[in-house]
Amino acid sequence: MNKVVNQRAWIFVLPVVLLVAFNAIIPLMTVVNFSVQETFGDNVFSWAGLTWFEQVLHSERFHAALLRQLMFTAIILVIEIPLGLVIALNMPRKGPWVSVCLVLMALPLLIPWNVVGAMWNIFALPDIGLLGRGLNWIGFEYNYTRQPFAAWFTMVLMDVWHWTSLVVLLCYAGLMSIPDAYYQAAKVDGARRWAVFRHIQLPKLKYVLTIAILLRFMDSFMIYTEAIVLTGGGPGNATTFLSIDLQKIALGQFDLGPAGAMSIVYFLIILLLSWLFYTLMMRSEEK
To answer: Is the peptide bond before 235 cis (omega within 30 degrees of 0)?
Structure first.
C-alpha cells in the first residue's frame, strides 16, 4: 500500500517564502544592476561590464579593509568561543541561580547595536568615560579617538562584551541536553573533570560549537553599526572594515558602480568562508 504524503502544509509556508524571496531578490538584483553599469545621475546608465569588479579586486584600499576585517574576525573567534565555553561550563545546572545567570547572559543581546556603540563611546572616552579615565588614572595612556591600538582594543572589548553571551547560551543549551547517565558513569569510573570535558562534553558540543563559530564569524565579518558609532572607522583608517568602507564608497562618494561590485564581492567572500568553515568542521566530525 502506497503512503499518501500530504503537502498542504506548504500552503501556510508559501506566503512567508515568497515574502522573504521578494525582500532578498529585489535588493540583490538592484545591486547586481549597479555593479555592471555606470551612472552619472538622472537615472542615466551606461554599460560597464566587469570594470568595477576589476577595480575592486585590484584596489589596495579594498585589500587593506579586507585584511583589517579578517584580523578582527580572527581575534573575535579566538577570544569569544573559548571564553563562552568556559563560562557555560561553570554556570550552575540547578537551583535559583540558573535563572539569574541566564538573564544576565541574555541582557547584552537585548540591547540594540547602535545603543551598544553609543554606550561604549561614552564608556571609553578618555576624559569622562569610566574605562578611559580609569586606564589613564592607573598609568596607561589611552585615547581610542587618536591611538589605533586603543581603538582596536575598545572595538574588541565591546564585541566580546556584546556577543560572548550568545556563545555562552548556545553552549549552555548543549550542555543541558547531555543525559545525566553520562556523568554518573564517569563518576563511577573516577574520571576527572578534564576527562569528563574531553570525552563527554566536548564531543556532544561539536555541533553547537559549529553553529556558534559560524554565527560569530558571519556577525563579526559584517560588523557595521557598533563600529561606525564607536569609532567611525578611525582614527584614520585603523578600524575601517569592509562594511564601513563600503558605506563610504556608496553613500559618501556616491560611486554606485564600485559600491555594487564591492557588495557582490563582499557577499561572495562571506559565503565562501562560511562554506569552508562548515565543510572543514563537518569533515573533522566525520573523522
So the answer is: yes
**How many folded domains does the chain comprise?**
1
Q: Check pLDDT > 80 for residue 3.
A: no
Mean pLDDT for all residues in the chain = 89
Asked whether residue 151 is domain-assigned, the answer is yes
CATH number at 110 reads 1.10.3720.10
pLDDT, tens only, 60-94: 999 999 999 999 999 999 999 999 999 999 999 88
Gap between the Cα atoms of 229 and 273, Å rounded: 27
Residue 210 sits in which domain range?
59-286
- Residue 22, pLDDT score: 81
Asked if residue 35 belongs to a domain, the reply is: no
Output the nine-digit C-alpha cell for 133.
579615565
Q: What residue type is assigned to position 78 of the chain?
A: V
Neighbour-count burial for 227-238, b at 16+ CB within 10 Å, e otherwise: bbbbbbbbbebb
Residue 37 in any domain: the answer is: no
37-39/45-47 β-pairing: antiparallel
Average pLDDT score over residue span 30-49 = 82
Spatial separation of the C-alpha atoms in residues 269 and 244, rounded to whole Å: 16
Decide if 217 is inside a domain: yes
As a whole number of Å, the CA-based R_g of the chain is 24
Residues 6+ apart with CB under 8 A from 212: 81, 84, 166, 167, 170, 171
> Measured between alpha carbons, how far is residue 255 from residues 127, 240, 251, 262, 268 in Å?
38, 18, 8, 11, 20
Question: What integer pLDDT is reported at residue 23 of this predicted model?
Answer: 81
Is there a contact between 149 and 235 (Cβ–Cβ < 8 Å)? Answer: no
Kindly report, residue by residue over 132-184, the tens digit of the pLDDT: 999 999 998 999 999 999 999 999 999 999 999 999 999 999 999 888 888 88
